Amino acid sequence: MNTMKSWRFNEFGSIENLQLEEIPIPEPAEGEVLVRVEYAALNPADAFVVMGRYPEAGEPPFSVGRDGCGIVETPLADGRFEKGERVVLLRSNIGITRDGMLAEYAAIPETCLAPIPDWWTPQEGAAGPLVNLTCWQALKLAADLRQAETVVITGASGGIGTAALMLSKAMGAFVIALSRDEGKRAKLLELGADVVLDTDDPDLVAKVRQASPTNGADVVIENICGPFLAKSIEMAGNHGRICIIGALGGIKSEINPLKILFKRLQVHGIQVGDYTDPGVQSAWSQIVETLRKTWAKPLIDKVYPFTRVQEAFRHLRRGTMGKIVVGPMS
């Protein structure tokens, strides 16, 4: 029997429940492709799956990992891909209800795969799809971002934040990036942010309004939430759109609904799982062509060896400047 190594958990609990196991290489079901995984990227949701805190997660045992890049080993007879072609994983239930990308091989529905953008490395291919699909859903599908509008990104140094920055700039926006860390603020300027501000600045709202050519945020990419959501509402200009992607600051918020009413704000919940397979393919094609305008690449904080997944998750929990990648897998 051909086997592979896979990081699996057998019961919900701490991230330490993930253990490196030897299991059979999966047999692709109808419509699926066998992919030899080269690199996987970590997301906070991976840890939530293991902890039993992710809605609609499957019952263990299985491996996590929603992001990855690899080589087609067994293509469909009449499919889109050929053996040896490099592909990236888009949105799917991989790593949520079934074995994910923290393994040497994965069986993946062909409809959830796409060719790697031709100017990205395999590490970038693992890091880029999910964050960019999430940001596209926020910036384009929900907020309908227009040329020269102002985008404010909270928690801008993480995987979502840096992707939102690059995608917003490629779409022609004026970007104000927020971070508590001075070193990260400097890096955000290097990445193309027009203005960077300290999240904890007591005069933040006034400084956002002063810096913005449109007198406030037309779009807020909200990664923090918690008590900070009230400040995002303050930063938004009239007819602004607030896209809630994460809740790094907690799940309890106290807000003044009259601010939403009188500013005519829109508040959108963003969930990458909302894409259909045809929808995700269409969105991904548009994302690639948009990013090609500036040749933007996913920002990678660090690449960890496959044997050091626990250490990689600890790094993710401390906070990152971009994405954490694991690999090569073999």
Commentary on this structure:
The structure is a single chain. By secondary structure, the chain is α/β, with parallel strands linked by helices. It has two domains: 3-128 and 298-326, Medium-chain alcohol dehydrogenases, catalytic domain (Quinone Oxidoreductase, Chain A, domain 1); 131-272, Quinone Oxidoreductase, Chain A, domain 1. The protein is built from ten helices and 16 strands. The chain has helices at 44-51, 122-127, 129-142, 159-170, 182-190, 204-211, 229-235, 257-263, 277-292, 309-318; strands at residues 3-9, 19-24, 32-41, 62-63, 67-74, 86-89, 105-109, 113-115, 150-153, 174-179, 195-198, 217-222, 236-244, 266-269, 300-304, 323-326. Strands 3, 5, 6, 7, 8, 15 and 16 form a seven-stranded mixed β-sheet that branches. Strands 11-10-9-12-13-14 form a six-stranded parallel β-sheet, with helices on both faces. It has a three-stranded antiparallel β-sheet with strand order 2-1-4, with no helix packed on it. Strand 15 (300-304), helix 10 (309-318) and strand 16 (323-326) form a beta-alpha-beta unit. The chain starts with a strand and ends with a strand. The mean pLDDT is 96.
